Amino acid sequence: MNARGEQIKSLWMRIEVDPDAPRFVGRQRCDTVIIGSGIAGLSVAYELAAIGHKVIVVDRGRIAGGMTSRTTAHLAPICDDGLSTLMKLRGEAVARVFQQSHEAGVARIEQIVDALRIDCNFRRLDAFLFPAMGTDPKQARDQRQKEFKAARKVGAAAELVTGVPLKGFEKAPVLHYPNQATFHPLRYLRGLADAIRDKGGLIFANSAVISVDELPGGGVRVSAENGGLIEASNVVVATNSPINDRFELHTKMSPYRTYAMAFVLPRGDLPDALFWDTGDPYHYVRLNPGPGLVDYLIAGGADHKSGEADDGEVRFEAIEAWIRALVPTLGKEVTRWSGQVLDTIDYCAFIGLNPGSTSVYVVTGDSGQGLTHGALAGLLIGDLIVGASNPWTAVYDPKRKTQSGVLNYVRENLSAVKSIAGYLLPGELKSLAELSPGQGGILRDGMRKLAACRDNAGKVHLHSAVCTHAGCEVAWNTAEQCWDCPCHGSQFGPDGVVLNGPAVLPLQPAQVRRSK
After folding, report:
1. Fewer beta carbons within 10 angstroms: which end of the chain, N or C?
2. What residue spans in the chain does CATH classification 2.102.10.10 cover?
3. Phi and psi of 143, rounded to 5°?
4. Backbone angles phi, psi at 373, to 5 degrees
5. Are strands 491-492 and 448-454 parallel, antiparallel or unpaired?
6. What stretch(es) of the chain map to CATH 3.30.9.10?
7. How far apart, in whole angstroms, are the C-alpha atoms of residue 276 and residue 268?
8. Element (DSSP H or E) covering residue 31
9. What is the reported pLDDT for 5?
10. Over the Cα atoms of the chain, what is R_g?
């Protein structure tokens, strides 16, 4: 629920990917168990099932109900933070392989759509990078030229053009990327889930994993909170933020909250294309087919580090004002939502063997490109498990060291330092009486800090403010009615239940010791 008491849902959430998926109970054996049922998890499961592996997919909630259901579904192989920035951090050779791998990810989605005849509105279209509002004209031309040169060096198709059909930018210096794509992500994943089951794979919902253990003689044991146990040769942790690792990977990436809105738009008022600007944080726009003679325009942006701002309403208002200025015929708002992305220090995901493991693989660090990272992860992880060589391995190796990303490493880890130091500061609340329905905050109770919120029904919930993953202090998110951990991206419901990893244990219930 948001501050207005309305359900926040993405444009895709009306689709149930696998509503009949059972809860996992008992014991099972398989070749590979995949934890997480977003595009990364189901892509890996599909690729392995297609070559005869017995796979089991488990998810803590409904199938594909995590961050994949909150995407805006841009299938753009271009580095989310700019190809020139990626080249500066990791060099031209790595940037070229990055581009090739993401193009292969989009192509693989297209191949699967065709092979399985999935009705998900997949289509190839153009994409346009245009200047942010208020950008100096010379700076805009220079930015365009820099990205154009980077695209040429890494083999990405791009051309210099003038103008986009957005008010005020008809004559702006623009970079055109042809042959990009988009689709309906949950319709696509429903097709993948059906194919996985057809190939003998098993899919379980509402089956949160509480531990992943490598066995001395080889293989893994995965334990679920309901007493279920799965033994397998390999496990793939594809849970957005990995639940099997406490520090090794989490210190090399940071969670960011991003916002999106959908509006009605008369069909034909804007070409079917992808648009994004050069702002920081940047905005992004695309269309999705609607009923009759209307489309849905999806606009997003206004990113901030998770847990470091609780002003979702203001950010939604800013997005709406921005897009209405660009598209004057925009109609009423249909829905709004937010999601979380994990930015790595070098803008490439971590896909491969978990550091120090022999049987545990991870897919994490989407860096704003979770869909293409997820699709290519199916191909890469599949090769790694069967022992085949893959040209992308080094680019995404979770063990990699990126010296040029040291400054990013220091900056991103300041959240953990600030969060832990926050225990020494006063709480945000002086009394529970300050809480209105839908509000939450931190209350100091002696030496402790409590996460206090009043849900939309008026019930007060009290828990420890300490995230159960690594001990950071959580922060209330009014827009999504949940507690966010600013350090590593864990999220908890008002009742303390885990909504998103890496935490696997709920917030500890608490009571106020002193009279309020």
Report:
1. C
2. 426-500
3. -60, -45
4. -60, -40
5. unpaired
6. 81-89+120-181+254-341
7. 19
8. strand 27-35
9. 37
10. 22
Write the secondary structure of 133-178 as one string of H (helix), E (strand) and C (coil). Answer: CCCCHHHHHHHHHHHHHHHHHHCCCCEEEECCCCCCCCCCEEEEEE
| Sheet arrangement for strand 475-477 | 475-477, 482-484, 491-492, 498-500
Q: Is the peptide bond before 173 cis (omega within 30 degrees of 0)?
A: no
Yes or no: say if 356 and 507 are a contact pair by the CB < 8 Å rule: no
Contact 264, 334 (CB under 8 A): yes
- Phi then psi for residue 460, to 5 deg, are -90, 135
Q: Where does 253-293 show beta strands of DSSP type E?
A: 253-266, 274-277, 284-289
Identity of residue 11: L
Nearest Cα to Cα of residue 132 among 258, 301, 283: 283
> What gap in Å lies between CA 509 and CA 364, rounded to an integer?
30
Structure tokens at 253: 């990436």
Kindly state the helix (H) or strand (E) to which residue 398 belongs, with its residue range: none
pTM (two decimals): 0.91
Cα distance between residue 167 and residue 395, in whole Å: 39
Q: DSSP 3-state assignment of 461? A: strand
Overall fold of domain 426-500: Rieske Iron-sulfur Protein (2.102.10)
Q: Which residues contact 192 (CB under 8 A, 6 or more apart)?
A: 42, 43, 45, 46, 112, 116, 118
CB count within 10 Å of CB 501 equals: 25
* Separation between Cα atoms, residue 410 and residue 389, nearest integer Å: 33
Q: Is residue 387 within 8 Å of 402, Cβ to Cβ?
A: no
Q: Which of the following CATH numbers is that of domain 81-89+120-181+254-341: 3.30.559.10, 3.40.50.300, 3.30.9.10, 1.25.40.340? A: 3.30.9.10
Going by C-alpha positions, the residue among 104, 105, 103, 112 that lies closest to residue 196 is 112
Q: What is the pLDDT of residue 447?
A: 80
Extract the residue ranges of the chain whose pLDDT is less than 70: 1-8, 246-247, 402-427, 514-516
- Cβ atoms within 10 Å of 178's Cβ, excluding its own: 12
**What is the pLDDT, as a whole number, of residue 246?**
64
Per-residue pLDDT tens for 24-52?
A: 999 999 999 999 999 999 999 999 999 99
Q: Cα(first)–Cα(last) distance of the chain, in Å?
A: 27
- Nearest CA to 364 out of 385, 347, 342 is that of 342
Asked if 109 and 188 touch (Cβ cutoff 8 Å), the reply is: yes
Rounded CA separation 371/110 (Å)? 13
Residues 6+ apart with CB under 8 A from 93: none
Query: pLDDT of 246-261, one tens digit each?
Result: 667 888 889 999 999 9
Question: Phi first, then psi: what are they for 27, rounded to 5°?
Answer: -125, 145
